[in-house]
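Comment on both lines for my students:
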Amino acid sequence: MVISKIKIRLLEPIMPDGSERRFCRGVYGDGQSCIVIYPNPGENGIREAASYVSIGRHLKKVSIPVPEIYDFDAAAGIIVAEDLGDIHLQDEVKRLSDVGDWQGVERLYERVLSILAAMGVRGRDGFDASWCFDVPSYNGEFAFKKEVLYFLDSFITTMMGIRRSAVLEAELKVFSVAVDDMPRNFLIHRDFQSRNLMICRSSIGVIDFQGARFGPLGYDAASLLFDPYVSLPLPLVWGLFDRYTRTLADLGVFFNPRKLRHDFKTLAIFRLMQALGAYAFLGVTKGKGIFLDYIPAAISNLDALLHDEEFNGLRGLKTVVKDIRRGFL
């Protein structure tokens, strides 16, 4: 096939995770491997593809290791991008942890966190909010509508069969307002987890960045360090978080360490609710059962966070998570 000026040969389908987009591996030019990304059906899929291209080119310009974009058919929403291979951060962490190399795991995450800090700080400079196919900022309203309600609808009601509680919904709506008290002038990826980080020739690459927008620093760090795909030991999580804050300080970011830590935990709660909603939707509604395997780790992480006295006000969420955890573990 021909996409613009690039001839693509030997297209081989790649199984996506939760995306409705289609992916193929092909060969172009003098034999270089590439990834061809076909958009979701409909106009929003075209807009999402345009976001991928605009944001990807911006991140590349500020030296964030994302795939180079070779070509883009704007009318069809088809992207031709650099091939970063098949090894996810999740795979590499499993390989290292299986042989007990936790120092290797820690060093790997330190490299990833350096990339994350740079993306949050350098990536915001020159970032154009019009590139976002979704809302341009992560705020309390977005957290409630896209994460809390997703959790309540897909996980609590559809998967667990628990009757929708107006009291719990009201509790979490009030909790969502906390996001609006956080500094939100940084760039966030919004899905910065181990399946969206690739290990290619000893380098680390970031993929699936089309949902990037302005938001709070702690969101992506929470996505990464409380990632149910990996489920890091809590002492390692907190050690890596401290390393992340030092990296931010080295980049000239001024913050209140105590508040940033609280924001990080708050955002981890939202992120885990989002993940549980996604796993339930993909596993039950879409029939992709592999995602159900990660629910126990997500529930365990959420339960651990809710034990913190800072979240004593979340009585309804604590109760439902505690009850569900008994059924999974």
In short: The two ends are 50 Å apart (CA to CA).
